[in-house]
Write a structure and sequence with these properties.
Elements: H1 3-13, E1 17-20, H2 36-46, E2 49-53, H3 62-66, E3 71-73, E4 81-83, E5 98-101, H4 113-121, E6 125-128, H5 144-165, H6 184-201, E7 210-215, H7 219-228, E8 233-235, H8 238-244, E9 255-260, H9 262-265, E10 266-268, H10 276-281, E11 286-288, E12 299-302, H11 316-323, E13 332-335, E14 357-361, E15 366-369, E16 376-379, H12 389-409, H13 423-427, E17 429-432, E18 435-436, H14 444-447
Parallel strand pairs: 1-2, 1-4, 2-3, 4-5, 5-6, 7-9, 7-12, 8-9, 12-13, 13-16
Antiparallel strand pairs: 6-17, 10-11, 14-15, 14-16, 17-18
Helix pairs in contact: 2-12, 5-7
């Protein structure tokens, strides 16, 4: 029998089943990596076989998947390739299978090293959406925009609650938390109506200028700015922000927006000229200069990537100094980045959709869930896109769909160098047959820690 006939026979009779995992890390995680609409197209175009793990909370019902030709089952044991979203429990993994999900291991996160060790022990393949990038390093599959959209809606809702608690009547009290809307469109329509009222009647007496600052300018920040843009907004520079406070004649029906870039936030410790490439290469040589802007902000939206190599953007000590002078202008922080004890130091942990906000008191270094108490209110939901589960899943699936066929067809028994996958997918492959691929060898020092 010729080799060609054997390969052909294998392709005909040995179809790989692709599994869609039920998400179980968070109670309110309702997203799916592929929607029924995407699976219907993939079945029609490529004759692929899908098994969807049954779920009573996923935003798309089991019947919706059955109606487009997918199978629904209690487990995914017959599947060779399994797609998920959040981290997976150790007892779920099976030997030599391929898993595609947000693993949250690339920073050496200690809480996910046991999961990674288990995958290595079972010789699994791991593809991480976060590292599927083009030649310029730009992410190709992401939820970031929806984190920004939901994060800004939540922050505006929280701001309305907080201002009312402080005795300030405001138009934002009409808002709800993101997940309580039936769709993104419904939320946008209500915010647009509030924007019209602000244009006509003003925003908040006694708080002008009202300034919302954004760290970062990527997908997350753009999503958040998109929602703020439904209100009457004028963008100004970080430099101009420092002089805005003295202008008493400013209108009351304008919200000022500042988008902070790296050179606004960091400076060289030795006074050298700022160099972005040098910041990335030598972050230990830089310090934060963000403290100068904080007293002029009403709301801070933290939307930029951060890891522990970089200086914090906003420290507890900075907040303590500001609050020691009395109630400051800064009222709410929307920490979409949500790194515990990270760039926003007072974010001690991510919050849940069911209990999304807390008040941090800088003077006592204490936390209180909800919108009451002394200090600054922080919104730090760690799975923000799941507050808009249907919209975000459609967007994510649109990006992921084009990669499903090559992921399904790949022969993972081949060496990593010979593995026939799109280059972007290979960039996102952290483990191949339980071994770190070349770009991720650095993780050995984390996974081998006791």
């Amino acid at each position: 029998m010729s080799r060609f006939f054997i390969v052909l026979q294998k392709n005909i009779f040995m179809s790989k089943f692709i599994g869609i995992r039920h998400e179980d890390k968070y109670l309110m995680e309702r997203r799916a990596p592929l929607t029924p609409r995407h699976i219907e197209r993939l079945i029609q175009h490529y004759k692929l076989d899908f098994v969807v793990q049954t779920s009573d909370k996923r935003i798309f019902s089991d019947d919706e998947y059955l109606n487009v030709g997918a199978k629904v089952a209690k487990d995914l044991k017959k599947c060779d390739i399994i797609l998920g979203i959040k981290e997976i429990p150790e007892d779920f993994f099976e030997r030599e299978k391929t898993y595609v999900f947000f693993s949250h291991v690339i920073k050496g996160q200690s809480y996910n090293m046991p999961m990674l060790r288990k995958m290595m022990e079972l010789k699994c393949n791991l593809i991480d959406y976060e590292k599927i990038v083009d030649e310029q390093g730009k992410r190709l599959i992401f939820f970031g925009r929806y984190a920004g959209l939901a994060g800004m809606i939540n922050t505006m809702w929280a701001l309305g609650l907080r201002l009312k608690e402080l005795g300030i009547e405001n138009k934002l009290t009409k808002l709800k938390q993101s997940h309580k809307y039936n769709s993104l469109k419904e939320a946008r329509d209500i915010i647009s109506d509030i924007g019209q009222r602000i244009s006509e009647n003003g925003l908040i007496e006694g708080m002008k200028p009202f300034v919302v600052g954004f760290t970062g300018y990527g997908n997350v920040s753009n999503g958040a700015q998109e929602i703020l843009g439904l209100l009457p907004v004028k963008e100004i520079s970080a430099e101009k922000l420092l002089t805005l406070k003295s202008r008493h004649h400013l209108p009351n029906n304008i919200i000022y927006k500042v988008v902070f870039k790296e050179d606004d936030i960091y400076e060289h410790k030795q006074g050298k000229e700022f160099d972005l490439h040098d910041l990335y290469a030598n972050p230990q040589d830089y310090k934060s200069k963000f403290e100068q802007y904080v007293p002029h902000l009403s709301v801070l939206m933290n939307c930029m990537y951060w890891d522990s190599r970089y200086p914090r953007i906003l420290t507890k000590e900075c907040l303590k100094k500001i609050y020691a002078k009395g109630q400051p202008r800064l009222t709410v922080i929307g920490d979409i980045t949500c790194d515990p004890d990270g760039s926003i130091e007072c974010t001690h942990d991510g919050t849940h959709i069911e209990d999304p906000i807390f008040v941090y008191d800088p003077l006592t270094d204490t936390y209180k869930m909800g919108h009451k108490g002394n200090g600054v209110l922080v919104m730090a939901v760690s799975i923000l896109p799941s507050e808009l589960p249907r919209d975000s899943s459609y967007s994510f699936g649109d990006m992921l769909s084009s990669f499903i066929k090559p992921i399904a067809n790949a022969d993972y028994d081949m060496t990593f160098e010979d593995l026939d996958l799109p280059r972007a997918i290979k960039k996102g492959m952290i483990l191949h047959k339980g071994e770190f691929t070349p770009d991720y060898k650095y993780l050995e020092k984390y996974v081998n820690k006791d």
